[in-house]
Design a protein that fits this description.
Elements (H helix, E strand, L loop, with lengths): L1 E6 L2 E6 L3 E5 L7 E4 L2 E5 L7 E2 L8 E11 L3 E7 L4 E7 L2 E11 L1
């Protein structure tokens, strides 16, 4: 069984048992429930269910594994002929979630 969920302004294609990294979620430990499910598909031969935009009564449950930061991304800006340079770094925060159940 697979599903397409929306969280943090992005969409993720997930199966049961998958580990995904999403934008930082507020709970540190425990379970999380994604209610914004766009698509659900069962085994082969079954029809896909799509929402408009979300499916009613369908949710995806997950377990929070860890919270962390990605590697640093360096941003460099330069204005030519003005001797102006700017260098910045950014670490994006993430939450790693293991999908435990797709409830239809």
């Amino acid at each position: 069984m697979l599903a397409v969920i929306k969280t943090g302004g992005k969409q993720y294609l997930v199966h049961e048992g998958d580990k995904i990294k999403v934008e930082k979620l507020s709970p540190k430990k425990g379970k999380v429930v994604f209610k914004e499910v766009l698509l659900v598909s069962g085994e082969e031969g079954e029809k896909m269910k799509t929402g408009n935009p979300f499916l009613e009564g369908v949710s995806v449950e997950g377990k929070i594994l860890q919270q962390g930061r990605y590697k640093k991304v360096t941003i460099v800006k330069q204005i030519p002929k003005k001797r102006h340079r700017l260098k910045k770094g950014h670490h994006q925060l993430f939450t790693e979630v293991e999908i435990t159940k797709i409830a239809v």
